[in-house]
Design goal:
The chain is an alpha+beta fold. 34% of the residues lie in helices and 23% in strands. It has a domain of 79 residues: Orthogonal Bundle (T-fold), CATH 1.10.3980.10. It has ten helices and 14 strands.
Length: 339
């Protein structure tokens, strides 16, 4: 999640055009699909979490569908005020400042517990306590100092370690001074899950919820066709679709080296290995299909820093999970279910 700022109409159109670049994009509905069985396709787009959120559902009652989408977006916005590290009053920001948070919001606790599970599953390749390292890189580059030195990286790594976050009776605490958390690699997926849950509460099961490339498809489109998404190339003008596939009751997320690069060659970027302090030299992008957005989001982040063979072996061990990796040389690697 990125800092909040005033967004002009020009900014909005630019962001809308860029959200699916080199990531996952929902493919457009055809005319017949939009009108079949007297169903209306209701869509809405809103800026949340520093990115564009797109909601689509099929309904016989357009007005009721719009009310459901409004409630969904309001809930997603409320979650941002809990999970965003960029909002000074959020619970996450309060935890980062004080090192302890009492009466933690249940949504925050859920995300922290799932983050710990993914961290253990990936051998520490995913770690939300990486914020001191991320801050080091961002501050160094922003100040015109270039990439940080090995000594500064080593120092920052002493404050990284998911095992040093404890949760007990609604109290979250860091067991080491100077720690801080970023949920950038997992919160967006969770908010997509929650958006889908709210729409289902309103009785809508044929929905597509997408936020900056992370998405969850539930049910089907009109005429019973699955939702279709396309994976765009992480290089060039991003016009090429590397893969298109149908998804139903499935989430998808993409991580890539192109989003926030720290070097012109994309060798160093915002996805840093919490175990080594540097970016992986192998992958340009990682796309994960999973049962939930939170799992897909976190695993896509982890796969970007894991050795590809080990990452794919991990994915093959997780039920209902698949991965599609693109190397720096644009070589494609797939998990067994996509092969």
């Amino acid at each position: 999640m990125r800092p909040q700022r005033v967004v002009t109409r020009r900014d909005f159109l630019r962001i809308v055009g860029a959200t699916s670049v080199a990531g996952l994009a929902a493919l457009a509905l055809g005319k017949n699909e939009r009108t079949a069985a007297s169903l209306h396709t209701v869509t809405e787009t809103r800026l949340l979490m520093g990115t564009v959120v797109n909601l689509t559902l099929s309904t016989p009652d357009r007005h009721a569908g719009q009310l459901a989408i409004g409630a969904c977006l309001d809930h997603m916005s409320a979650l941002e005020s809990v999970l965003s590290r960029y909002q000074p009053t959020s619970q996450l920001s309060r935890l980062n400042r004080a090192g302890v948070l009492e009466a933690a919001n249940p949504h925050l606790v859920t995300v922290l517990r799932e983050a710990a599970r993914i961290s253990a599953l990936t051998g520490g390749a995913f770690d939300i306590t990486i914020k001191p390292l991320v801050d080091l890189y961002q501050n160094s580059v922003s100040a015109g100092q270039g990439l940080p030195s090995k000594e500064r990286i080593t120092s920052a790594l002493t404050r990284v370690g998911y095992q040093n976050v404890t949760i007990q009776d609604g109290v979250v605490m860091f067991s080491q001074p100077g720690m801080s958390i970023t949920l950038d690699g997992i919160a967006k997926g969770y908010i997509v899950d929650e958006g889908t849950r709210i729409l289902r509460q309103y009785g809508y099961h044929n929905v597509l919820v997408e936020a900056g490339g992370d998405l969850l498809a539930s049910g089907v489109k009109a005429q019973g066709a699955p939702w279709r998404i396309g994976l765009q190339s992480p290089r060039g003008d991003n016009a090429e679709l590397l893969l298109t596939f149908g998804v139903t009751e499935q989430a998808a997320a993409t991580s890539g080296d192109y989003m926030q690069p720290y070097s012109d060659t994309l060798a160093v970027h915002h996805i840093l290995d919490p175990r080594t302090g540097v970016s992986s030299p192998e992958l340009a992008s990682a796309t994960v299909l999973a049962k939930s957005g939170i799992e897909a989001d976190a695993l896509a982040t982890a796969l970007m820093v894991m050795e590809p063979d080990r990452g794919l072996a991990l994915i093959d061990s997780i039920p209902a999970c698949e991965a599609y990796l693109v190397t720096k040389e644009l070589r494609v690697l797939r998990s067994s279910g996509l092969a």
